[in-house]
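Incident log, structure service

09:12 report received: a user says their structure output differs between two submissions of the same chain.
09:20 pulled the input from the user's history:
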Amino acid sequence: MRRPPGPRHHPAVAPLATLAAGLAAAVYLYGTDPHQSGHWLPRCPFNWLTGQLCPACGGTRLVYDLLHREFVRAFHENALLFVLLPFAGWALARWLLAGLRGRRWRLVLSARTQYALLGTALVFTVVRNLH
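09:34 re-ran on a clean worker, output below:
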């Protein structure tokens, strides 16, 4: 006979843990200015190795600026992530609500959408590194 799933297997565990980790990171980041040196935030490995900006470079500074309501500055840190952030928020909310209702939800992107996102990230990376 199969036992019912325990609390660790409830569909809400993963989205709640993700939300809690994100909130903890936001609390830390609120008081830690990534624009200044002397913090524990890691440097982007791609940038460290190549000296170029990856598609996510500036994401930490973007979140810091958003937390401090510096929207224009946040956009200038990483325009692509700034534009995609509402979609990420929607996906997290959808995942969380499904989990709280006892259902599992997974974001499914078509191959065309995946290629479009990858192509956009590549073009964005090339364009932002042209000085």
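09:41 both user submissions now match this output. Likely a transient worker issue. Closing.
09:42 reviewer note: Residues 113 and 119 are 10 Å apart (CA to CA). The helical segments are 13-30, 45-50, 59-67, 71-77, 79-100, 111-128.
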